[in-house]
Write a structure and sequence with these properties.
about 220 residues; alpha/beta; 2 domains; Rossmann fold; six-stranded parallel β-sheet
């Protein structure tokens, strides 16, 4: 394939942050006296964008908070961590530097909010590498729908078939495949129950960014 762009997911892919969101669910629901169900997202029928998850919480738990209030509270809870103690996964910066040096376009397609995405990219000094950022706080269908990744490709002015997406979760891999893109998956401990499903549909499965970088180097 001709590689015109590499598009990254954020949480669990570029940054080691999934544990923070697990704690947010516990704290947010705990304040309201609601235990976190084991199957919290099992009956979520639509995408996983920031807005869609807020709507899902409001509906599932009959919350009085508005959608904007829910999203603001989550943002306030996570902001400090994204500024201070959420870091890149090993090898992530080196891959970004390599792609940048090769003049490969770089995009971000995340279900997270734009504010939090920019916050954590700035704190890890990698915001400068991204040509385009598409987030889940926009009016867009979340993963596994392909919309986020297709919007990144359009903004980058590249053909989806010439894009590699790097993802860690099953719905994200499906979103990229639904967009007609090549998908490289990176292992994350929080997606362990999905590993076998991911391996069946992904184009390449790497334990870390060093393995993914080796694979991309062979393609360029």
């Amino acid at each position: 394939m001709k590689i015109e762009a590499v598009i990254f997911d954020l949480d669990g892919t570029l940054i080691d942050s999934m544990g923070v969101w697990v704690e947010v669910d516990k704290e947010y629901l705990g304040k309201r006296g609601i235990p976190v169900p084991d199957d919290l997202f099992q009956d979520m029928e639509h995408g996983d964008s920031f807005i869609e998850v807020a709507k899902y919480f409001k509906r599932k738990f009959n919350l009085s908070d508005s959608i904007d209030e829910i999203m603001k509270e989550w943002t306030d809870m996570v902001k400090w961590h994204y500024e201070n103690d959420i870091y890149l996964k090993p090898g992530a910066k080196e891959l970004l530097e390599y792609l940048y040096a090769k003049n490969i376009k770089i995009g971000l397609g995340t279900s997270n909010s734009k504010y939090l995405a920019q916050t954590v990219l700035k704190s890890n000094n990698i915001l400068k590498y991204f040509d385009v950022i598409v987030t889940g706080c926009q009016n867009i269908k979340g993963k596994p729908f392909p919309d986020i990744y297709l919007k990144v490709a359009t903004a980058l002015n590249v053909n989806p078939s010439n894009c590699i997406v790097i993802e860690d979760v099953y719905v994200g891999v499906k979103a990229a495949k639904n967009a007609g893109m090549t998908v490289f998956s990176i292992e994350d401990e929080h997606t362990k129950p999905e590993w076998e499903k991911i391996k069946k549909i992904t184009d390449f499965y790497g334990k870390d960014f060093w393995k993914i970088k080796e694979k991309i180097e062979k393609l360029l």
